[in-house]
Amino acid sequence: MSQLYVGSEVGQLKRVMLHRPERALNHLTPSNYKDLLFDDVLAVERAGEEHDQFAQTLRDQGVEVLLLHDLLAQTLEVPEAKTWLLKTQVGEYRLGYQFAHDVRSYLKSLSNEELAHILLGGLSYIDFPNHSASMMQAMHERMDFIIDPLPNHLFTRDTSCWVYGGVSLNPMAMPARQRETNHLRAIYRWHPLFAGQDFITYLGDEQRDYDNAMVEGGDVLVIGNGAVLVGMSERTTPQGVEALARSLFANGQAKEVIAINLPKHRSCMHLDTVMTHMDIDTFSVYPQVMRKDLQSWRLINKGNGDVEVKEADYFLHAIEKALELPQLNIITTGGDSFEAEREQWNDANNVLTVRPGVVIGYEGNVYTNEKYDKAGITVLPIPGDQLGRGRGGARCMSCPIEREGL
């Protein structure tokens, strides 16, 4: 079996990709943070320190941590990858023929390390040292961006997600995040860790317009036993779920996909902000959202490329059936109604399971963490005063690349 394999949400985690927040957060200001999908500006140094503690907590548990910036810089050493990325990320229709040419010429003069910083963190007109014959410079303010920063790269879970023996390079819903996928496309194609390895690409291996078929990894839970749980949120559409399911089935990687129709609001941005898998039979759930009356469906592989869609009576029963368990153990968000709402907003339910019954979560969610502890779940606490302002917890900030099955 290829080492590039994620067989569950709770089996021993072996390798994971993170992105330490850096230049992109420096470019986050009170005037642009909403366009860049953040709820606030962050203290950059502190966010970096918090992230370092997260990475160290994983390493202390024997997990190999790969950093996105390093992977990208190493990928840029491959001439074909560098040419493709510059053409894709600094396109002629994005910047105009002349200006794209001038910007690419400047970027080619930089080291791969500096170029990775700019592709991830953005480039403003004030930082572009050359004069271009294009109209673009004259028509923009100095603090406008030539290349937009990508602060949401912090949430490596969403851009690509490994499901059993393959990866989905996700067609992202928000324009502020769509360029992220190209970085992962280049890394998985050309980086020595991935190039020539035996893995399947379910979605996104080719440049194509996925139209309304959108998927983000925060909505995709690989619950094991050949089953995948997907939330249809603000960011993942029924069309996206169907496209992913068909590809999983066609490649013999899954038996069924359970799809849940989630409320479309900010506090429930992805399925993993309201529900995560903590032990073989145990899930954390925010009950105000994960109600019994949510519509859910089972997409079942009929073979010959056919998919059977059946409405499920209750999503928890569908999960029990898929995992062949008599009953799930559900741990709800801690505290009274007010405390539970606050802690869910601060990602109390968004934990990263390292191995069965051991999870990483923000230390500030005291009521929920206490509840997990009493239920026999060990919480490895990390600080999140700054990181949490991006509305994502430990699961959001991690892309497992190698993990054991159930």
UniProtKB/TrEMBL annotation:
Active site per database record: C396 (amidino-cysteine intermediate)
Reactions accelerated catalytically: L-arginine + H2O = L-citrulline + NH4(+)
Keyword annotations of the record: Arginine metabolism, Cytoplasm, Hydrolase
Keyword Disulfide bond: no
Subcellular location: Cytoplasm
GO terms, biological process: L-arginine deiminase pathway
Keyword Hydrolase: yes
Broadest EC class assigned to this enzyme: hydrolase
Record EC number: 3.5.3.6
GO MF: arginine deiminase activity
Protein name: Arginine deiminase
Gene: arcA_2
